[in-house]
Amino acid sequence: MALDTKNLYLSVVIPAYNEADNIKNGTLESVNQYLVKQNFTWEVLVVDDKSTDNTLKLAQDYAKKHKGFRVSAQPHRGKGGTVIAGMLEARGDIVLFTDMDQATPLPEFDKFIPEFRKGADVVIGVRSGRQGAPLVRKAMAWGFSFLRSLILRLPFKDTQCGFKAFKQDASKEIFKRLKIFSEEQKAKGAAVTAGFDLEVLYVARKLGLKVVEVPVIWHHQDTKRVSPIKDAWQGLRDLVRVRLNAIQGKYKINS
Question: Please, which residues have CB within 8 angstroms of residue 20's CB and are 6 or more apart in sequence?
Fold first, then answer.
């Protein structure tokens, strides 16, 4: 059951920056094949981060031929700003963001549905073991996990999995309150923005929202956008920035 703007259950937001190869390899088709079999209404919003290849045209061509798909062309902001733009534009009762490479395949959303029915406001995927990831990526993940627990006291097992879903009202409350990442931010080149997920989950906790973790399938995908040294430094910087914002009361929730 595809798009029904009056009664839309699920919005799938897919940020895209130079994803032509993934689209050609059928990732959008795999998303479509899952959704057309569901008994709920849905839309897919591909948010192009001003790609320098033909990602935008490929996504637009696909959307023209497949009901329920639409494309939003955005200025270059990096992944964080692109996801925010998509989340604020999405219309579903539940809004999920997922990566174009489908490292976590969309059918894993089946595991999220019961949690929302039980009252979750936010459901996030948790990767187990990161099978196939290089040793350096696993070491980075361990170090980042230790630091986020130490600095932000976030209790989650995996904050960085690119597979997260939100009730519509929770999504709007969270994404309009972010201080480091926003719709207006600018970026140069490929920008992974590791701290984005941290700020999202920190704000969710400040709002008192119920966040549930669910184990999901994840397959390592090679990408040129991951630079171990650069990403580690940016992740640490963003951890500190979130903490400083918190100390300064910038995330204070007014009653």
Answer: 51, 53, 54, 55, 58
Ordered domains of the chain (ranges, CATH): 10-247 (3.90.550.10)
What's this model's pTM, rounded to 2 decimal places? Answer: 0.86
In the DSSP assignment, the letter for residue 23 is H
- CA distances (Å), 189 to each of 18, 71, 100, 119, in order? 10, 21, 18, 39
Could you give the CA distance from residue 57 to residue 213 in angstroms, rounded to a whole number?
35
Q: How far apart, in Å, are the Cα atoms of 171 and each of 149, 194, 234?
A: 23, 19, 25
Q: Say how far apart CA 163 and CA 103 lie, in whole Å.
A: 9
Q: How confident is the model at residue 55 (pLDDT cuts 50, 70, 90)?
A: very high
Q: What share of the chain is helix, strand, coil (3-state, %, to 5)?
A: 40, 15, 45
Question: Hey, what amino acid is at 214?
Answer: V
82-96 per-position pLDDT tens digit: 999 999 999 999 999
Tokens encoding 45: 């919003």
Strands 69-73 and 122-127: unpaired
From CA 88, how far away is CA 86, in angstroms rounded? Answer: 5
Of the candidates 219, 211, 221, 216, the residue with the CA atom closest to the CA atom of residue 127: 216
* Of the candidates 185, 196, 181, the residue with the CA atom closest to the CA atom of residue 75: 185
